[in-house]
């Protein structure tokens, strides 16, 4: 799992100079690979703040793929405080939670349902901005 592998990789950095050059290269490549994976996961999670994007995933049958559903479950690591701080659109975490539910994933195939969710998010932001 990424969330633990990058933390483990970063923990090795202080001792990096004590390692051989080839070990240093391997460790640096692992850190870089973990960082790229984190960036891709972060971008995808934040796309979930857009119900119209989720609607597109639903009608293209992504939610019928067990591997994709497992990926959504894997992404729950973003709820942990050490990763939550990177989220710019908090509603994406709520949508990620909702996507853990099969019924919600099925409902997202309905454009009217996706539009209703979009409207609810918009109204919520308007209320928060007025305070």
From TrEMBL:
It comes from the Eukaryota. The keyword Cell membrane does not apply. It holds the Pfam family Med31. The keyword Transcription regulation applies. One of its GO terms (molecular function) is transcription coregulator activity. It is found in: Nucleus. GO terms for biological process: regulation of DNA-templated transcription. GO terms for cellular component: mediator complex. Keywords: Activator, Nucleus, Signal, Transcription, Transcription regulation. Residues 1-22 form the signal peptide. Belongs to the Mediator complex subunit 31 family. Component of the Mediator complex. Component of the Mediator complex, a coactivator involved in the regulated transcription of nearly all RNA polymerase II-dependent genes. Mediator functions as a bridge to convey information from gene-specific regulatory proteins to the basal RNA polymerase II transcription machinery. Mediator is recruited to promoters by direct interactions with regulatory proteins and serves as a scaffold for the assembly of a functional preinitiation complex with RNA polymerase II and the general transcription factors. This is Mediator of RNA polymerase II transcription subunit 31. It comes from Paramecium octaurelia.
């Amino acid at each position: 799992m990424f969330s633990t592998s990058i933390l483990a990789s970063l923990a090795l950095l202080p001792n990096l100079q004590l390692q051989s050059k080839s070990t240093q290269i391997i460790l640096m490549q692992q850190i870089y690979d973990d960082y790229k994976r984190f960036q891709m996961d972060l971008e995808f999670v934040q796309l979930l703040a857009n119900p119209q994007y989720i609607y597109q995933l639903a009608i293209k049958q992504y939610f019928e793929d067990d591997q994709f559903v497992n990926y959504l479950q894997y992404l729950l690591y973003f709820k942990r405080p050490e990763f939550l701080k990177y989220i710019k659109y908090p509603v994406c975490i709520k949508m990620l939670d909702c996507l853990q539910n099969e019924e919600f994933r099925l409902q997202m195939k309905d454009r009217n349902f996706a539009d209703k969710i979009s409207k609810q998010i918009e109204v919520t932001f308007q209320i928060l901005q007025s305070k």
